[in-house]
Amino acid sequence: MMRTGPALLLLPILLFAAGTGAHADDDHERARSALREGRILPLERIVESAKQQFGGDVLDVDLEDEEDGFRYELKLIAPDGRILKLDYDAATGELLRTRGRHRSHGDGR
Length: 109
Known about the structure:
This protein has three helices and four strands, in the order αααββββ. By secondary structure, the protein is of the alpha+beta class. The protein has one domain (5-102): Nuclear Transport Factor 2, Chain: A. The chain has a four-stranded antiparallel β-sheet.
């Protein structure tokens, strides 16, 4: 299994840098400030929690700045093949929403 700990600590910052221009710089700085000031948890803690509860592997992560606070949105593939979308409160680590579906198998299952 690949070791991703150090990279996961920087991921929230990098995710906010996905835009362009001054807006991206503002998003990047807000995310970095929130992490530095302890207003959001490190992504590594959220990923560990998700993997303990659901197993599987993380496919994608987003950090969203919503009106009611930051949220981590994770997509993972569970051991049974389901694709799960998990929304976490970035400040508390509370799991807010779980959605899932079975992955398509080219054989019609």
